[in-house]
TrEMBL record:
Residues 29-48 bind DNA. Signal peptide: none annotated. GO terms for molecular function: DNA-binding transcription factor activity; transcription cis-regulatory region binding. The keyword DNA-binding applies. It comes from Paenibacillus rhizovicinus. Residues 6-66 form the HTH tetR-type domain. This is TetR/AcrR family transcriptional regulator. It comes from the Bacteria.
């Protein structure tokens, strides 16, 4: 998830993520990050100006990674329906495979710790923007109802998030069949033609 960073930055970001998930943001101090990462406080400050700076870099790193993961096999030559199914399957796989990253984004996307510039950069570099473009393409092709694409993406994401949270809290089993049914329900909610035709 943090491969684009050097070893010191990776250690700091990975440690901070685990601490925040385990102890919450307020209880995660710079001294605790230094102790658990094995990186001296002075060395941390060489790369990050503050805990807030670490949190914002963590946010951007996770969102960028998520964007690459979700859109990694979406090809323009494929139909809208094929890309739609693949993208949402990737979102579900991402949440199951990287639960800490999923929890962090869900918990802190609206936190005052995250700067507006970081949120904007993340939106452009993440998967929400590309998916909104896919939905816009579906609207133009007459496949989807005439509704704001970004709103539809967020509406569907809310449904997926609910399932992932239930799965991660072990309240329900998110099987491939449940995932497929959910994605189909999302498609049917905005499509002019119900069901898969592929």
């Amino acid at each position: 998830m943090f491969e684009r960073y050097n070893k010191v930055q990776q250690a700091v970001l990975e440690t901070t993520l685990h601490l925040i998930i385990d102890k919450e943001l307020q209880a995660t101090s710079m001294s605790l990050i230094a102790k658990n990462s094995g990186v001296s406080t002075g060395n941390i400050y060489h790369y990050f100006s503050s805990k807030e700076d670490i949190i914002n870099e963590l946010y951007k790193a996770i969102v960028l990674f998520n964007g690459e993961f979700v859109t990694r096999d979406l090809h323009d030559g494929d139909t809208v329906q094929a890309r739609f199914r693949r993208a949402w399957k990737n979102v579900i796989e991402l949440g199951k495979k990287y639960p800490n990253g999923f929890r962090f984004i869900e918990q802190y996307s609206f936190s005052p710790y995250i700067h507006e510039a970081s949120k904007l950069e993340a939106y452009k570099g993440g998967w929400c923007g590309p998916l909104a473009s896919l939905y816009e393409e579906a609207v133009h092709q007459g496949l989807f109802i005439d509704m704001e694409p970004r709103m539809m993406v967020q509406m569907h994401y809310g449904s997926i998030v609910y399932l992932l949270k239930g799965h991660l809290q072990q309240h329900m089993e998110l099987t491939d069949n449940v995932a497929e049914q959910t994605i189909l329900a999302c498609w049917n909610a905005v499509s002019k033609e119900k069901g898969w035709n592929e």
